[in-house]
Design brief:
CATH class of the largest domain: Mainly Alpha
Shape: flat
Strand content: 15-25%
Strand order of the largest sheet: 2-1-5-4-3
CATH topology of the largest domain: Hypothetical protein af1432
Number of strands: 20
Helix content: 40-55%
Largest sheet: 5 strands, antiparallel
Number of domains: 5
Oligomer: single chain
Length: 759
């Protein structure tokens, strides 16, 4: 390529610039003039010489390289190129080639410096390696050959010449195939190894037979490697005489054959004896297996039964064997039990008086006592059977734990004579004791009969769990009010009886007083009041006292008492209902008072009779009694009720209807309670009545109740003003409310407001 294409340009007056490819080279590139003054250079040159381009452009390349400028100029003048080596200050050696190229009127030179530090080092290493190789080759203690890939011998050391038995002059330069150093039969093997060497791979060790000129054949091992000299592959072969090795191997094989024969003979003898022993062992194993199988079967059978079993020496009473169940019952392992006397654990009081060994009596299913690890007595059912094992006498003692059976008997006995709810005695036990006392009367005995009032009302109003609670409470009060010798029993659903054994009428009256005082205290502290009726009877303190007649008298007395205090009992039930309703809804008291006042005023305006007024008053107070059956999370929910919750809330009139019917005193208003949410237009609930089908009392209550409710805070909304409440009544007149009664109520409400203002 012309220089003007290599350089950036050659127009006259232009300074040569370094071409772009110069910075892509790994060699240093300079452009300088004929005297060596540097014009420009690439970055590699800057890095090598340790200067930046500006500084390096002020220096002379010939001076930097300590090269004679005239010799370079002369060479360039004749050949247009020259070269020299230069050692840099950092120790690197570079080869610089100078090329002359025309640029204007001046002679400029482009010089390329190549780092040859590694190349010179490699040449030095190669020279040193050749020297080492030749030294080792000739002084090696083993026969070494060098030959080419045709098998022509190039060199051999002294040991190699000695092993072949030929002078070196007859070996070097000749092919070992033509010399017949190997048998013809081994030529293919040798050619195969040469082929492997040709691929640059070593071989061996491989065995060959070396044929010496004197006719001696020597077994040898040859290993080869391939080395390269002057771009030519040469094989280095190491040969070792293995005559002694093969002779030793043959001796070893001979000895091995003799040893093998001897071992085979002894093995045959041992195998024969071993076969005989195996037969003996097999027979013994079969016998042992049969014995072990029998023992396992017997042990499994003993361990599988629910009874504890021990094997006992009848003379010493020492335990010889036991099953798993016995270990469990004793709380001890077989290791702890075996070797101990059975009387240490079973029937300890019978030591020296054993029915079988000492008295010669049979023992079959007899209740005895076993002592467990804790020293506690365990009731057992024991049997003893004599047995002979391998000519020796033994006793097999078996026993069943009766603990659970005894507990079950006690539990059954307890449940058969005790009431499951209250825990006190039941009617069965009461009648049993009555029968016994009829046969053997006790002086001064008597009977108290107690009947709980209003149990059905409590169950219907508050749920059976509340009724059960009151029954249990009464049972506890009775149990705590009588003497420990007296008998308290629940003889019916709501009826109790006390058998007072001794003390006569004085003791009975004192007991009844204690019962009443305890109930009064309970009623003061509880929202759920207790009401009971009590009757009693005593005998004449003589042997002719008839307990059954006393029970009849006490029962009649109880019914008389029930009739006498029926009103107070009803009041107790109503009081309980009132307390419970107030507890469920804190605003009930004040709401009820306001509603009663307004209802009574409207009723008087309508000139209702006294019965209607009394009923209306009860309705105003107890119309929401059914809400005691609504869950608290619905009744007190602050937000809007869901569809399911609304359905549950709408059930309170029906619940109130059932409660009122069971409460007797409220039964006369039960129908009104059921219908107090009916609407004038028939869209109310639960019956869907309309117009005058709805009782007048319910229509009056609906207006008054809604008016007061709208002006009261509720969990789900704030109260509204009286004016807004009046507007709502007018808006729903003829829809929810009787329109004529709305007008009447508003007149009454205005009069009440005026009275309050004047007051």
């Amino acid at each position: 390529m012309p220089y003007d294409q290599i350089m950036g340009g050659t127009e006259e007056g232009m300074t040569p610039e370094l071409p772009l490819w110069a910075d892509a080279l790994s060699d240093a590139v300079f452009i300088h003039d004929w005297q060596g003054q540097i014009i420009c250079c690439n970055q590699v040159a800057c890095n090598w010489f340790g200067f930046d381009r500006g500084t390096l452009g002020k220096l002379n390349l010939f001076t930097l390289s300590s090269t004679d400028a005239s010799s370079i100029q002369g060479s360039l003048a004749q050949q247009r190129e020259s070269s020299c080596e230069m050692k840099l200050s950092n120790g690197r050696v570079v080869n610089i080639r100078f090329h002359l190229f025309p640029f204007g009127d001046e002679k400029n030179v482009i010089s390329i410096a190549k780092d040859i530090t590694a190349e010179k080092a490699m040449r030095r290493i190669d020279a040193e390696s050749d020297e080492w190789f030749h030294t080792l080759f000739y002084i090696a203690p083993s026969p070494y050959f060098l030959y080419d890939l045709t098998g022509t011998i190039i060199e051999g050391n002294a040991m190699a010449v000695k092993m072949v038995g030929e002078n070196k002059g007859n070996l070097v330069g000749r092919n070992f195939f033509s010399l017949k150093l190997l048998p013809v039969s081994q030529f293919p093997k040798a050619l195969s190894l040469l082929a492997i060497n040709a691929m640059g791979k070593g071989t061996g060790p491989d065995e060959f037979d070396l044929q010496r000129p004197d006719g001696i054949v020597t077994p040898i091992e040859i290993s080869t490697c391939v080395i390269t000299r002057e771009n030519k592959k040469i094989v280095l072969a190491v040969a070792n005489d293995i005559s002694a090795k093969k002779k030793a191997a043959e001796s070893e094989r001979d000895y091995s054959r003799k040893l093998t024969a001897m071992v085979a003979q002894k093995t045959t003898e041992l195998q024969k004896r071993n076969t005989e022993l195996l037969l003996e062992i097999e027979e013994r194993k079969k016998a042992e297996k049969t014995i072990h199988a029998y023992q396992r079967t017997l042990t499994s059978m003993l361990d599988s039964i629910m009874a504890g079993v021990i094997l006992v020496d009848p003379k010493t009473h020492i335990i010889r064997k036991c099953n798993k169940k016995a270990e469990q019952l004793f709380g001890r392992s077989e290791m702890e039990l075996v070797g101990k006397q059975c009387h240490s654990y079973i029937c300890p009081a019978m030591e020296g008086k054993c029915p079988v060994t000492d008295l010669g009596q049979p023992v079959d299913s007899s209740e005895k006592v076993l002592l467990n690890r804790m020293g506690l007595a365990v009731p057992i059912l024991k049997s003893v059977v004599p047995i002979i094992i391998e000519g020796e006498n033994y006793l097999i003692e078996s026993f069943i734990d009766l603990t659970d059976i005894k507990k079950a008997e006690q539990s059954l006995l307890h449940s058969s004579f005790h009431d499951a709810l209250t825990g006190i005695h039941n009617r069965t036990f009461f009648q049993k004791r009555v029968h016994e006392l009829q046969q053997n009367p006790v002086a001064g005995m008597g009977v108290i009969i107690i009947d709980m009032d209003g149990l059905k009302t409590i169950n219907d109003s508050f749920g059976h769990h509340k009724g059960d609670y009151l029954l249990s409470t009464i049972a506890g009060i009775l149990q705590g009010s009588v003497a420990t010798t007296d008998i308290v029993a629940r003889t019916g659903g709501d009826e109790f009886a006390v058998l007072v054994l001794g003390g006569g009428e004085e003791k009975i009256l004192k007991t009844i007083g204690t019962i009443q005082q305890t109930i009064d205290k309970h009623n003061q502290d509880s929202n759920l009041e207790i009401s009971i009726s009590i009757g009693y009877a005593t005998g004449n303190d003589g042997p002719g006292d008839n307990l059954e007649m006393m029970i009849k008298k006490a029962d009649d007395d109880m019914y008389r008492q029930k009739l006498l205090h029926r009103h107070s009992a009803r009041n107790a039930i109503v009081s309980t209902l009132r307390k419970t309703l107030s507890e469920r809804d804190r605003q009930t008291d004040s709401h009820s008072e306001r509603v009663i006042d307004m209802v009574m005023r409207v009723a008087k305006e309508l000139s209702l009779n006294e019965n209607s007024l009394a009923g209306l008053k009860l309705l105003a107070e107890f119309h929401d009694i059914g809400k005691i059956g609504i869950p608290d999370d619905i009744l007190r929910k602050p937000g809007k009720l869901t569809t399911e919750e609304q359905s549950a809330m709408r059930r309170h009139p029906e619940i109130g209807y059932r409660i009122a019917n069971s409460a007797m005193v409220l039964s006369e208003i039960s129908d009104w309670i059921l219908m107090h949410h009916e609407w004038w237009n028939g869209e109310g609930y639960p019956l869907g009545l309309k117009g005058e089908e709805i009782p007048l009392e319910c229509r009056i209550l609906a207006i008054v109740d809604a008016f007061d409710a709208m002006m009261s805070d509720r969990p789900y909304r704030q109260a509204i003003s009286q004016n807004d409440a009046v507007a709502e009544l007018k808006r729903f007149a003829g829809i929810q409310f009787d329109p004529e009664l709305v007008d009447l109520f508003l007149r009454v409400a205005i009069e009440m407001e005026c009275e309050e203002e004047n007051y």
